[in-house]
Amino acid sequence: MISLTLAEIADIVDGRPHGIPDLAAAVTGPVVIDSRRVVPGGLFAAFAGERVDGHDFAAGAVKAGAVAVLATRPVTVDGTPVPALVVEDMLAALGALARAVVGRLGASVVALTGSAGKTSTKDLIAQLLQRDAPTVWTPGSLNNEIGLPLTALTADETTRHLVLEMGARGIGHIRYLTGLTPPRVGLVLNVGSAHIGEFGGREQIAQAKGELVEALPAAEDGGVAILNADDPYVRAMASRTRARVVYFGESGTADVRAENVRLTGRGCPAFTLHTPSGCGDVTMRLYGEHHVSNALAAAAVAHESGLSADEIAQALSEADSLSRWRMEVTERADGVTIVNDAYNANPESMRAALRALVAMGEASKATGGRTWAVLGPMAELGEESLAEHDAVGRLVVRLNVSKLVAVGGTEAAWLDMGAKNEGSWGEESVHVSDAQAAVDLLRAQLRPGDVVLVKASRSVGLEKVAAGLLEGDGAKGGAADR
């Protein structure tokens, strides 16, 4: 974070000093909400959660080096006050601090949203923009009203690009986030069915995602809206912004587009990148054709930031996955490949992951290798849940995936039912109760050359299956891990 005195922070967050001996003391380190991550010179924000109250760790945070604590009540330990700035609303204070810090930076803020692919695309953008200048980006999927300001507060005077992922679970969420960190460049990837149960329909999702482009500056002030030309809901957002519009996609009318799209023998996408300033050949290290759209979106952002087509193509070809449990590929010592994509799932990302699984399994078919889809429930689909799970189960069969292991309760039963109704026979599709049952089944049946995809919504915790299959197997690291 840029250096600020406690007096300056108190003014920004409307905080009341409590037990602070010197308001001229400077906060030079990051703002954290986990006392275990406090570093000397930092600031500890004591959130009171449902299970844990940060105020209970305030004294320990100061002992670890925090200059003070951002708190909603005074904290005293053994008669000694813990240095704190006491605020009425912790969330509002954190947001106000982020807004003030971003306002003092000379950084260009890039914000992105979408129903699927946000984190993977954000990671690609970060790796491209790093080649131009110091860049700060959202770690993992910390894209809400807490994670976004915490990310922004890690930026300092040297930061030139600030890349922020923005999530939404309702109308107005993205509008709030853009108010904290006003973007110059706004990217909308797609409108799908993620969280459709909470929103009520794709039209409502589009309304929420489009709040990003509404927040952009006018074209004459440098605002740029980057929109997916292949998604009609996203393309229609052009009418909602004053910014200059740039389109990406496989459409021939897109400003940044891909031609000659294909998959390598390992299931990695390759294509010719076309930008307004030139072309370049890309062969990605990531797995699955769905990454082509993500790469084009990142390329459009990079182009608007001044990178040449050659620089963009090279960076995309060298980019890795920076966030865990997203098409994380590991080959075991016995030749079994585990694809851990268990961070989250929705119908669109399920279909993309299944197609990637099939592509990855092609090379081992000749030697008897099989493809396994170990799938769990997709959350927050509302009334669409049965139909969407049934459709995914059917797709497994249509893609000729060798085996389906549906893990969990009712939704998993729907996956299994869809596969069997589509024509699965014998033990091609199996329904098991939990992760351990899936691990036991797979351990007994996997053989060299098999490729195993593990995917479900975050709440399911299906990464335990991938971990169980890799435990003690001497998995190969390095280039195989993506």
Mean pLDDT: 94
Helix content: 25-40%
Radius of gyration computed on alpha carbons = 24 Å
The secondary structure category is alpha/beta
Number of strands: 24
**Uncertain residue segments:** 477-482
Strand order of the largest sheet: 11-12-10-13-14-15-16-17-18
Main beta sheet, described? 9 strands, mixed
**Terminal Cα span:** 30 Å
What would the principal axes of the Cα set say about the shape?
A: globular
What is the strand content? Answer: 15-25%
Number of helices: 17
Overview of this protein structure:
The chain has 482 residues and is of the alpha/beta class. 34% of the residues lie in helices and 21% in strands. The strands form 5 sheets. Strands 11-12-10-13-14-15-16-17-18 form a 9-stranded mixed sheet. A 6-stranded mixed sheet has the order 19-20-24-21-22-23, sandwiched between helices. Helix 11 (291-304) crosses helix 12.
Structure at a glance:
It is built from 17 helices and 24 strands. The protein has 482 residues and is α/β, with parallel strands linked by helices.
Secondary-structure blueprint:
Elements: E1 4-5, H1 6-13, E2 16-18, E3 26-27, E4 31-32, E5 43-45, H2 58-63, E6 68-71, E7 76-77, E8 80-81, E9 84-86, H3 90-104, E10 108-113, H4 118-129, E11 135-137, H5 147-152, E12 161-165, H6 173-180, E13 185-188, H7 196-199, H8 202-209, H9 211-214, E14 224-228, H10 232-235, E15 244-249, E16 256-263, E17 269-275, E18 278-283, H11 291-304, H12 309-318, E19 328-331, E20 337-340, H13 347-365, E21 371-375, H14 385-398, E22 403-407, H15 410-422, E23 429-432, H16 435-445, E24 451-455, H17 463-470
Parallel strand pairs: 4-5, 5-6, 6-9, 10-12, 10-13, 11-12, 13-14, 14-15, 15-16, 20-24, 21-22, 21-24, 22-23
Antiparallel strand pairs: 1-3, 2-9, 7-8, 16-17, 17-18, 19-20
Helix pairs in contact: 4-11, 11-12, 13-14, 14-15, 16-17
